[in-house]
Each structure stands twice: as C-alpha cells, then as structure tokens.
Design brief:
The protein is of the alpha+beta class and 179 residues long. Helices cover 51% and strands 14% of the residues. It is built from 7 helices and 3 strands; from the N terminus they run βββααααααα. Helix 3 packs across helix 5. The relative contact order is 0.08.
C-alpha cells in the first residue's frame, strides 16, 4: 500500500474544542510516509495525486521571490523615497511577468513543459537578442531563442534525482495493468 485517503475529525477531546472535518492523504514516497491535509473532502473533486501536486507547487511563489531578488536585482533598492521604491518594485514585477511569458512561449515552441525551461538562462539570453536587434536583424524573440536553445542552455539538464523522482511518481500514480 502506497497511499491512504481518509476523512478525519480534528479536536475530538475537551482539551482541543475545534471540530473540523478534514481529509488526510498519506503517500509513501520511497521509505517515508508524507501526510497532506485538505478541506476538500470529495476525492472526485480533488484526487490524492492532485493534493500532492498542489503541495509541491506551493513553493513556486518562493521561487518567484528568489528570482526577482537574485536574478532581477530586487534585493537592493536604488532609492530611499517611497515613490522610487514603488517604481522599482513595479517595474521589476512587470519585467518578471514579461520574462515568464517569454519562458512559456519558448516552452511551447520547444514542445517542453515550462518547468524544463531555465528562467535564468532565458533572461541571460535576452542580451543576445538585443545584440541581434542592434545589428539590424530584427528577429522574433521566441523563434530566436528556440532556434538557439541548446547553444544558450535553455532546457534544464535532467539529473539522476529527477529521473528517480519521476520513476517513483509513475510507480505510485499510474494504474496497474489489467491482467
């Protein structure tokens, strides 16, 4: 058994008067059980696999903050006045939105999931797009990046731990073949 999906009630004792019914999804990843709580009680509405996937994706906001601080330079404020700080934050977030759209479009052009495209390498490759514009080439940004994806290192390398994680995910969630 690699998965348990049950409805539980929290706060059954006088010391904890909370009476909330929640769904506990437990999944065995390797040798460790991981427990996830959700208030969506219907497994038809939210499957156990989706509960686990949502938990994994909850860190995407932290990754976005890391990128805007480290890669786009928002860790340092250029001015001290409130108006200047607001301008810096807003322009950085607007650029981050445009960069994310470029990453999405490159992923579609390369027939890859967005998670396999390196945001940092796309950002660094924009320098070469700008150089092409300055030479008068006037390239389509997405096509230019997609054609040079290997040269620019836009597709993340698949590491051993990623292959192992994917194999474990398939083993856990794919249905058994009918015999």
């Amino acid at each position: 058994m690699t998965e348990r999906d049950e409805i539980i009630t929290l706060g059954q004792y006088r010391s904890n008067p909370c009476h909330s019914t929640v769904r506990l999804v437990s999944v065995l990843w390797g040798t460790t059980w991981y427990d996830y709580l959700t208030n969506v009680l219907d497994s038809e509405q939210l499957s156990a696999e989706e509960v686990c996937d949502l938990y994994i994706r909850r860190w995407q906001i932290e990754e976005a903050f890391l990128l805007t601080k480290r890669l786009l330079g928002l860790a340092y404020l250029w001015v001290g006045l409130t108006n200047g700080v607001q301008i810096q934050i807003l322009t950085t977030l607007i650029f981050y939105t445009v960069l994310t759209q470029i990453v999405q479009d490159v992923a579609v052009a390369l027939h890859q999931p967005q998670e396999k495209i390196s945001v940092e390498m796309v950002f660094r490759s924009l320098y070469y797009v700008a150089k092409a514009f300055s030479r008068g080439e006037n390239p389509d940004v997405i096509s230019y990046l997609a054609e040079r994806a290997q040269l620019f290192g836009l597709i993340k390398a698949e590491r051993q731990r990623h292959r192992e994680k994917e194999a474990l995910h398939r083993q856990l969630w794919e249905p058994l073949p009918l015999s």
